[in-house]
Write a structure and sequence with these properties.
Layout (H helix, E strand, L loop, with lengths): L1 E2 L2 E2 L16 E3 L4 E3 L24
Antiparallel strand pairs: 1-2, 3-4
Keywords: Lyase
Protein name: Pectin lyase fold/virulence factor
InterPro entries: GH141_ins
């Protein structure tokens, strides 16, 4: 991501190298269930982006 011509770091609820696991992934309903985040005010956010990092073991 770039902001005003400079590389910027995306906001994240986790420290570097830490990720939360999905609880459920349903391709038929096109839904992903994740643990409820403890981020204050998230339920009132008007724009939210979720990035899914897939790593197949």
């Amino acid at each position: 991501m770039w902001v005003n011509g400079a590389k910027a770091q995306r906001a994240s609820q986790f420290p570097d190298g830490v990720m939360e696991r999905m609880i459920d992934f349903n391709p038929e309903e096109e839904t992903i269930t994740i643990p409820t985040p403890q981020t204050a005010g998230l339920n009132a956010a008007s724009q939210v982006e979720m990035i899914v990092h897939q790593r197949w073991a």
